[in-house]
Design brief:
- Helix content is 32%, strand content 17%.
- The protein is built from 12 helices and 13 strands.
- Helix 3 packs parallel to helix 4.
């Protein structure tokens, strides 16, 4: 359920804000016919996006990443500028020389760790972290970041505790064994993760999704199962959501925007075994703006959305700007293309809108 706090005084909010064009540091763009349906939703407001490699089959090599990048660029509408940042899918058998090639490619910006069986198309993921230590050593030496789906998959661990157990059993030893490895703990969901990341150096970062900022687990479970709010990691209790809100709106450089927007066809979500994933891209930036406005933190939106991520990855900040205006619009109930996809906040009013994408350059 969304925040139960009183909304901010409308009169105290600015009518318009202008920020550097942001980036999405965690997104799923899928492939095939679905790719062309969803790429424009991300590219309309994000200059760059870190594209997840969990296709079927997964993106394991630089050659596969380059071919996927070409398909993404081919799916862009004419005249739309967008840079996909590619990742490789880490497996038990990933060779160290592929890491060398990734670093040299200029296309690959991270390597994604999925515990085998943790989420969509993760069956080829890592079965035991020690089996990829040779690859991690190469990544540490080259400065190539490790992007973590931070959950354990042991059946005896409660699904609501899997992130906390991952931090204790996997992440803490990993950081001790590789003291210079750059790590992103993706889509964090708990107070445990916030506290852990805040205690680390600048080599550890974390992405936060808009759906974990907006909702707690009541939104998925109260009044009946709501399959379009089912994601992995799952929504947690309200105290954890409040911790995420504080982290995201703090301005702390450890935290940056990653939507984890993950489109699935409606029939796959609304099924006897509905798949995990929330499609937030069609209103992602506007919804993050709602969140920051609710916390009286619009002055810190640019740091979270546009500055902290590039600083972590050692990339330049975007030089273009966009403007958001406090003006309501209604998100469609579904998007029809190759498949029918239901977005986050389908059919609901969105409080902010992107009014113009100004191709302005910094004066200096």
């Amino acid at each position: 359920m969304s925040s139960t706090q009183d909304p901010p005084c409308v009169a105290s909010l600015p009518e318009r804000i202008c920020i550097r064009k942001p980036d999405d540091w965690h997104v799923h763009l899928r492939d095939g016919n679905l790719l062309s349906s969803v790429v424009p939703a991300t590219a309309r407001c994000f200059a760059r996006a870190m594209v997840m490699p969990n296709l079927s089959p997964p993106i394991r090599t630089v050659a596969q990443a380059a071919a996927y990048r070409d398909r993404i660029l081919a799916a862009l509408p004419a005249g739309m500028a967008f840079t996909p940042l590619m990742t490789l899918y880490l497996t038990d058998s990933t060779p160290a020389h592929e890491i060398e090639a990734a670093h040299a490619s200029g296309l690959v910006y991270g390597v994604k760790y999925y515990p085998a069986g943790a989420t969509t198309n993760s069956e080829n993921g890592v079965t035991q972290i020690s089996r990829v230590y040779g690859v991690l050593a190469a990544m540490e030496r080259l400065g190539l970041p490790l992007l973590l789906h931070g959950e354990v998959t042991a059946q005896e661990v409660d699904i609501f505790d899997r992130e906390a157990v991952f931090i204790e059993q996997i992440l803490e030893p990993l950081l001790r064994d590789f003291p210079a490895l750059k790590v992103v703990l993706e889509h964090i969901t708990t107070q445990n993760a916030v506290d852990f990341v805040l205690g680390q150096s600048a080599r550890v970062g974390a992405t936060i999704t808009v759906h974990h900022l907006l909702f707690n687990r009541n939104a998925m479970l109260v009044g009946g199962i709501r399959p379009h709010h089912y994601c992995l990691p799952v929504l947690k209790r309200e105290s954890h959501r409040q911790a995420l809100l504080a982290a995201a709106t703090s301005g702390d450089p450890h935290f940056f925007l990653g939507t984890d927007s993950a489109p699935h066809p409606r029939h796959a979500k609304e099924s006897a075994c509905g798949c995990a994933g929330i499609y937030s891209a069609p209103a992602a930036l506007e919804l993050y703006t709602e969140v920051f406005a609710s916390q009286h933190a619009l002055d810190r939106l640019e740091a979270f959305a546009s500055c902290n991520g590039p600083a972590f990855y050692g990339l330049p900040e975007n030089q273009d700007y966009l403007t958001l205006e406090r003006r309501q619009w209604t998100l469609p109930a579904a998007f029809s293309g190759a498949e029918t996809i239901v977005p986050l906040r389908a059919g609901e009013s969105i409080q902010w809108t992107i009014t113009e994408e100004e191709s302005l350059r910094l004066a200096n």
